[in-house]
Amino acid sequence: MEIILYNQVGEKHGKLEVSKKLFGVVPNNDLIWQVVTSQTANRRHVLAHTKSRAEVAGGGRKPWRQKGTGRARHGSIRSPIWVGGGVAHGPTKEAIFEKTIPRAQARKALAGTISARYAEGKLLAVDLLPSTFGKTKDASKLITALAEKITGYKKGGRILVVLGNNDDQMIIRALANLKWTDTVRAQELQALTVLAYPFMIATADAVRIMNEMVTK
Fold first, then answer.
1. Label partner for 89 (CA 20 to 30 A): which of 40, 202, 204, 205?
2. Contact call for residues 152 and 191 (beta carbons, < 8 A)
3. pTM
4. In this structure, what DSSP letter does residue 172 have?
5. Cβ-contact 121, 162 below 8 angstroms
């Protein structure tokens, strides 16, 4: 199949041959949910941590002798039932939330999300994004002009810019200061990233890379 290719000013520049496995896929919502869930879990940073009785300082000495005091026997003041003691069954930084997903399934989910964006008219393919010498102002005008060609786009809408290996690195620097845009290399694109942004702009080189990824 073919998709329309635009130039830098948003005019139709030609057509780009792509596989139906990338832009003509019927999204499998169940598969996308599984893949996105695993990708979300893999990005999770474990911060919550409580100390067990082994990690709390002190408590090396038995509080009182075993028998003869009339009180309940205790071995350490760092027991979870003591104030200031360790926490039983609390969250720890050793928790593992990572999930594995087959690469083929991840690619199918990615193709499904990209196809959905394209079917909605919210994905624009451009031949090339020129170097703006790192100037955010120029890059903002360029992306806004292109985004106006996307169905339903309103100024300030979140846009994901997908770049290929041959695209200028300076465009990443130029867009870094814009809160409503983000850039990603095509080979690093995930279904979770596509779903996080309602609009997409991809260069021709990026489309070729994505096409190779899903047709392997």
1. 40
2. no
3. 0.80
4. H
5. no
**For the chain, domain boundaries:** 2-44+100-215, 47-96
The rounded distance, in Å, linking the Cα atoms of 56 and 63 is 16
Kindly tell me the sign of the dihedral angle through the C-alpha atoms of 76, 78, 82, 87: negative
Who's near 153: CB < 8 A, 6+ residues apart? Answer: 122, 147, 199
DSSP class of 188: G
**3-state SS class at 105:** helix
* pLDDT, tens digit, 9 for 90 and up, residues 70-125: 999 999 999 999 999 999 999 998 888 889 999 999 999 999 999 999 999 999 99
**2-44+100-215: CATH number:** 3.40.1370.10
Picking from 161, 149, 170, 166, the residue whose alpha carbon sits closest to that of residue 205 is 166
Strand, coil or helix: 180: coil
CA quadruple 102, 123, 199, 117: dihedral, nearest 10: -50
